[in-house]
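hey
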């Protein structure tokens, strides 16, 4: 089995999940975390052997990942991890900014106290993950922070839509944490978002969310210079 595949992190399948979705989740997590890097080749045989599954669910997972732009399939040549497409990143960022600004306006009007407690705890764990350089786990907590705000505003389906276009965006966000670009600013902005919700300050909430999501535009330039082989 190839060295690239052996670097992958393998988790146990969630209860009730289909084999195809399990393979998809494992591969996606490793692609976003750069365990599988842009340009790496992966094969149905290797993945099926590694995860102890048949080739059919692997093939189905490859197709799903291809539809999300995370892998590309060359007939007779193989399946490769896609390079980061900054046009896709910007489109996902634009969608997130538009929707998150709308949701944060709802949050400042009425927001459950128990969710505020969760958000504060989430930030404390974020700080620990950064301290321990657990960047992938930090990104998961970051996403959970935003998801909790959507859920508290009864906008779970809107968040589900964001997740469908979020893959390239998440890759570059994690890369910014690995490169140590302004991760402390991310936590700072999360804390200001909580303050704005508590203070019911719509202007502060919207301005902070805009700043939070626009900083990736600036980071992209530095990341492309630092990791040119990762980009399309």
């Amino acid at each position: 089995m190839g060295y690239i595949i052996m670097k992958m992190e393998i988790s146990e399948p969630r209860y009730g999940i289909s084999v195809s979705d399990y393979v998809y989740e494992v591969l996606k997590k490793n692609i976003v975390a750069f365990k599988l890097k842009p340009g790496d080749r992966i094969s149905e045989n290797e993945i099926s052997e590694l995860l102890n599954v048949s080739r059919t669910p692997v093939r189905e997972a490859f197709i799903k990942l291809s539809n999300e732009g995370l892998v590309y399939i060359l007939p007779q040549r193989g399946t490769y991890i896609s390079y980061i497409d900054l046009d896709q990143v910007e489109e996902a960022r634009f969608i997130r900014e538009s929707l998150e600004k709308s949701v944060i306006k709802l949050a400042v009007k009425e927001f459950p106290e128990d969710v505020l407690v969760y958000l504060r705890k989430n930030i404390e764990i974020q700080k620990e993950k950064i301290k321990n350089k657990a960047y992938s786990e930090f990104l998961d907590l970051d996403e959970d922070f935003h998801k909790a705000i959507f859920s508290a505003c009864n906008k779970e389906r809107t968040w589900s839509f964001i997740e469908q276009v979020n893959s390239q965006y998440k890759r570059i966000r994690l890369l910014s944490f690995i490169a140590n670009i302004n991760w402390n600013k991310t936590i700072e902005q999360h804390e200001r978002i909580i303050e704005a919700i508590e203070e019911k300050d719509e202007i502060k909430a919207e301005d902070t969310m805009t700043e939070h999501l626009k900083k990736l535009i600036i980071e992209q330039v530095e990341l492309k210079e630092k990791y040119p082989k990762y980009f399309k």
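The CA atoms of residues 189 and 208 lie 6 Å apart. The mean pLDDT is 92.
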